[in-house]
Design brief:
Distance between the termini: 44 Å
Catalytic activity: 2 R'C(R)SH + O2 = R'C(R)S-S(R)CR' + H2O2
Number of domains: 4
Strand order of the largest sheet: 1-3-2-4-5
Keywords: Disulfide bond, FAD, Flavoprotein, Glycoprotein, Membrane, Oxidoreductase, Signal, Transmembrane, Transmembrane helix
Shape: globular
Cofactor: FAD
Largest sheet: 5 strands, mixed
Function: Catalyzes the oxidation of sulfhydryl groups in peptide and protein thiols to disulfides with the reduction of oxygen to hydrogen peroxide.
Low-confidence stretches: 11-24, 287-301, 570-577, 579-584, 590-631
EC number: 1.8.3.2
Structural class: alpha/beta
Bound molecules: flavin-adenine dinucleotide
Length: about 675
């Protein structure tokens, strides 16, 4: 009984510990994908001690294009797995807290970024960024060119000869034709005749670079000596590429393939008797323990939150602000020129919206202070920026993030989250500018354009967005809701582009034209034509401060290890209680006055739209985020464990006491008997 209760308690306690941990970014790759998964600890160490070249993908698991690119990169890694004696492939997920700093040191501003590194790469070597198309063939060719450029510098410690990627001269081939001594470590030399632009020869050379007993040359028939050699050996230069094999005794064999592709040639050559299979086995350079522990860190605990479809959540807006300033803006080593201007435009728009922008008082104070400080700066170093944004004053600090997200929570790891919260932030800002009755409604479109074009990490998203705003420029003369409707149109155009056509669509949250009919029937006329005035009213109701829910707000402003380095301890409030009180008050006072209004009669109020929302939950509901669905809090469980330990200890003492008394009793009895 005791043992059983002990087990139950331990299991419940363990579940609690696991689920209360902050979720860590789940990556898009695992080691079955023929890639080495790097982190902040091992990337530089590996690059600086590696005998081979490396291709590393820096990515972000939330970035839509990284998600779409992942299957291409996995296929590429598999395709070049047999080239591992010359080049290896690795990946690193930058938003993972372990990796933030290394990505910043490597100046990664765009996701995905592909970088090539030479062998024994110096830690200060920035690598070579791949700038071409992200198709598999284009990248493979770039890999081949990179290997060709660096192969002569590679230290070669393998038994088989180092592959040669350059074009061989006729003299070298003629040498191969003379019978080789039996001490020669290879049985065959193959020669591939091809034209200038062909990559097949180099691909076959690399595919067989880990095979024993075969060495491959390529000959360019567009060169005079290549053409002469082909003629001399009877090669049909009208049907290229062609391959021959020279046996050790000097005899020549033509290689016939069904299709003149890389894989057919590789297959035929590696089936020659005595040729060893290519070694495609993927060996991570890290010990089993390291990769296992890393994978454990990579696990995500999904604590599904009950959310209302018609609500917008302050927790998401806060997460967007924090991520934007601590990750995307902070990714820039020196803020100056266009980027600094873009940042000022974004922060100044937030400040101008004043109390119409849903945010805690502490966030408003923080943004105002940041804005004043920015006005005095021409250039900001990374250190100065971090020092500025991590400082916590009693009533003024950057809001905490909510790692599990709320309205933007995904049904599968890697989807939604940050980009969803960024849209939410800008929609909320556009509605705040209507509510603030700002004469210049271009404030938010300009702020959004400034932020996205300068800082948004998803490169393809940024490029697409820039095209979209060119096609649909903001026009202030379209009425008081011009900014709200402009942003709505842009967002719907992105939704249309991505709907059913993208691996980034969360099946539980399809990218429909927004708002769908069930959320706003009055937004549609017959034939599903928008009634834009009603759409504007719907958006204004949805994204107004009054509709922003406080559920699941995070009150714990915890800093990452990286951020802690910039924290000045003396500026912190003194007691924990004081911090708690200050935060509660900030969140409450920020929303005072909005709670008691009765909006049920508003035609666009969620209840009027048939929603099941019956009221704002208020600050009291925040405890929900600290509890397991089982209903236990961390304190409950800690208390249970203590009580259980005391009870078990007590029971053991009683049992021991009883045993001693019993022994004493029998001893006395026996003694009497002897007497
Ligand atoms: C500027 C920008 C450009 C992007 N470009 C790309 C891209 O090119 N390729 C790519 O893969 N990903 C892109 N993304 C990411 C993509 O748009 C989504 O944000 C991401 O896939 C998450 O989708 P989601 O399902 O959470 O909904 P999101 O599209 O992020 O929407 C968030 C929420 O906003 C509401 N909403 C939806 N549409 C509207 C609307 N028209 N008006 C008002 N509210 C609305 C809904 O409640 C929705 O849940 C971009 C993101 C941004 C911010």
């Amino acid at each position: 009984m005791l043992i059983r209760s002990c087990l139950v308690l331990i299991i419940v306690y363990y579940i609690q510990c696991v689920t209360s941990d902050a979720a860590v970014e789940k990556g898009l790759y695992d080691e079955k994908d023929n890639v080495t998964i790097f982190n902040g600890d091992n990337l530089l160490k590996t690059l600086s001690t590696s005998q081979t070249l490396w291709l590393v993908e820096y990515y972000s698991s939330w970035c839509g294009h990284c998600q779409e690119f992942a299957p291409i990169f996995k296929a590429l890694a598999k395709d070049v797995a047999e080239w591992h004696m010359l080049l290896k492939v690795g990946v690193i997920n930058c938003p993972n807290s372990m990796n933030v700093q290394i990505c910043r040191n490597m100046s990664i501003l765009d996701y995905p970024t592909l970088r090539f590194y030479p062998a024994f790469s110096n830690v200060s070597n920035p690598g070579e960024t791949y700038k071409g198309d992200q198709g598999m063939n284009e990248i493979r060719r770039e890999i081949i060119d990179y290997i060709a450029k660096h192969i002569s510098d590679l230290k070669w410690t393998h038994e088989r000869p180092k592959p040669i990627l350059r074009v061989s001269g006729s003299e070298e081939v003629m040498n191969d034709l003379s019978p080789a001594p039996s001490s020669e470590p290879i049985l065959y030399t193959a020669v591939i005749f091809e034209d200038e632009n062909s990559y097949i020869g180099r691909e076959v050379i690399l595919d067989t670079s880990s095979c024993t007993n075969i060495f491959i040359r390529r000959v360019n028939v567009n060169r005079k000596d290549g053409e002469d050699l082909a003629r001399k050996l009877g090669i049909d230069t009208n049907d290229l590429p062609q391959a021959i094999v020279i046996h050790r005794n000097g005899t020549i064999q033509n290689i016939q393939v069904k299709l003149k592709t890389r894989h057919f040639f590789t297959y035929k050559l590696t089936r020659l008797p005595g040729v060893g299979e290519p070694i495609a086995r993927f060996n991570s350079p890290f010990s089993q323990n390291l990769s296992d522990s890393y994978n454990n860190v990579n696990q995500v605990t999904v604590d599904y939150r009950d959310v209302k479809r018609d609500k917008v959540y302050l927790a998401d807006i806060e997460s967007a602000i924090r991520y934007a300033l601590t990750m995307e803006v902070a990714a820039v080593k020196v803020l100056e020129g266009k980027k600094l201007e873009g940042l000022k435009t974004f922060i100044s728009a937030f400040v101008k919206l004043g109390e119409h922008m849903p945010a805690r008082a502490s966030t408003h104070a923080f943004m105002s202070d940041l804005y004043s400080w920015l006005q005095t700066q021409d250039t900001i170093s990374y250190n100065a920026w971090m020092e500025k944004i991590v400082q916590k004053k009693k009533d003024q600090y950057l809001p905490p993030s909510n790692k599990l997200w709320v309205g933007c929570q995904p049904s599968k790891p890697s989807l939604r989250r940050y980009p969803c919260s960024l849209w939410t932030l800008f929609h909320t800002m556009s509605v705040a500018s209507v509510n603030a009755q700002l004469p210049d409604q271009s404030l938010v479109p300009n702020a959004m354009a400034a932020y996205i074009t300068n800082f948004f990490g998803c490169r393809e998203c940024r490029i697409n967005f820039m095209k979209e705003i060119k096609q649909m420029p903001y026009n202030s003369s379209t009425g008081p809701y011009s900014a709200v409707l402009w942003l709505w149109r842009i967002h719907n155009s992105v939704n249309e582009r991505l709907h059913s056509n993208s691996s980034t669509e969360d099946p539980a949250f399809p990218k429909l034209q927004f708002p769908p009919m069930d959320m706003c029937p009055s937004c549609y006329a017959a034939d599903r034509i928008w009634i834009e005035d009603n759409v504007a009213q719907y958006l204004i109701t949805r994204y107004s401060k009054i509709n922003v829910a406080l559920d699941y707000l995070n009150f714990n402003v915890s800093l990452t290890e990286d951020e802690k380095k910039f924290e000045k301890k003396d500026k912190l409030p003194e007691t924990k209680n004081e911090i708690w009180e200050a935060r509660l008050q900030n969140a409450q006072s920020s929303y005072n006055g909005n709670h008691h209004e009765n909006n049920d009669k508003h035609p666009f109020h969620p209840r009027a739209l048939g929603s099941n929302i019956i009221g704002r939950r208020g600050v009291g509901s925040i405890t929900g985020s600290f509890r397991l669905q089982l209903g236990f809090s961390q304190i409950d469980l800690n208390l249970c464990v203590v009580i259980w330990l005391v009870s078990v200890g007590g029971a053991l003492c009683l049992f021991w006491g009883y045993k001693c008394r019993r022994t004493l009793f029998f001893r006395r009895k026996n003694y009497k008997h002897v007497l």
